[in-house]
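quick one before i forget lol
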Amino acid sequence: MRIKILSWNVRGLNDSRKRSTIKSLLMKWKADIVCLQETKIEDWGTWDGQWVLGGDLNVCRFDYEKFNCHRRTRAMENFSETILDLGLMDLPLRGAQYTWSRGTGLLQASRIDRFLISSEWNDTFKTIKQVALPRAEGFLDSVKNWWSSYEVEGNPDFVLVQKLKYLKKDISTWNKEVFGKLEEQRSQALNDLTNLEQSSEGRILSEAENAQMINLQTHLEQLAKIEEVSWRQKSRCLWLKDGDRNTKYFQSVANANRRYNCIDKLKIAEHVIEDKREIKEEILSYYQHLYTENEPWRPLARFENLARISEAESTWLEREFEEEEIFSVIKSCALDKAPGPDGFTMAFFQHAWEIIKYEIIKALRHYHQHCHMVKSVNATFISLIPKKKRAIELRDYRPISLISSIYKITSKLLANRLKTVIGKLVSGSQNAFVRGSEISDATLIANEALDWKIKSGEPGLLVKLDIEKAFDKVSWSYLLTILRQMGFGERWIRWMKFSITTVKYSILVNRSPVGFFPPQRGIRQGDPISPFLFILAMEGLSKMIQQASSLHWIEPFKIGRDPTSQANVSHLLYADDTLIFCGAERSQVMQLNLTLFIF
């Protein structure tokens, strides 16, 4: 089933021209569902089709839709009048009284989410109903009780990590008790329902039996929804395909992912191995070698022309972590992405924030002051994602780091701060990261430079670089030196040093962790701050090429006819993809080779 959805922020549907435009769009696109936003009209008589309005409307209709509310407010009355004026139907909500709450109790709870439908929609979909998806009853209450029962002494980071370990164990036990017997619960409910239905054929059921039958039907629906949610999380399917949203679809995605990511054979040199133990040993050996620093000595990087942040900006970057900033980071994270070694997704932290926030805030403030946490926070799984079908060599796999939830929050906090100043630190050659620029600008500049070079009739050299395993081979000492020369404060440097040098890796081979080893170089793909650190690391190469160009060791391509206003283009960078423009003379090629060798 394929559905076309048309959404338009129309702003003023009373305008006849806009109504004509909408009709034309409908005829052209033949949309199945139409969303018109901010229509701002009083008379909806112009719309004759089937339509539905749904979402977080941020207002209740009746006083009983808000906990502990004993009067109907003017906003409620206006909302009800609007529904009547629009000729909409407000379907009853099944499965819950409220759709929003804060905290673990009902001190703040209300129904602010709803679907409103037109009579035409109701005529077409006669069996439509509005149902609140079930939540496991008492889960947050259980979390609150468990969390408050743990007695742990030590530094705040240690306390947080230990309490999360205890909580993980309790949730695992609870999960087996509540969700581990879904099939058994469903069979029992179906059996009880069948017995009642058979009894109803021979006699009139009592009021209690009728109520039991309704409860059993509701319970079966809840079990089906719970199973769907479970398989959706296992599938890591964060979008829906062709409108399908059912357990079978998510189950097939989860199983397909497992088959696709399974490493059942591996090509090493010219030999193919299929023994599971040998495969694990080869993969572990490969990544231990990859993250080993092969050069015990490197020249000290000194750049005279690096951009610097101001002292005020450095102080701002190192300011205290506040509760609002921390929770904003948690809310911005994808909810059900694969967890790291601690087993917690960001969905849990969002829902349980009011329960666990005190320990999180204390741990982060301790980190702010001391610039380190317990080592387990930086434990990392490396998940091997195939770049293509039938991958058989290790170079065909992309290593993605699955980091712990606490480290993810910390790293994203720092990444959000860093991205506010990074535009000041990178040169125009890293065009995509300069504020106000577009990624496509680099392509346009490259084409323009090439066109002018061809028109000039002079020989030139265009070098395309793709740095192999770029993230994995970043030198820690080089990166920290770059940060110091860019004006970052000592506290920030210590934060970055903790992030990149205290890591310990385990490789996930067919969903099983292998090894536990410390790297000597590299930054993690999957770490929120890594892309920004890599950009700053590449700025060193940019400055080296820029200096070689300014000293006329290499001649850049020139754009324009007038020598006094020509633009020089020596290089363009986007992440680990680099274009270098220079003359074709042997001396320039040798100088470029030396520059790349030093870098």
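fyi The longest strand covers residues 379-386.
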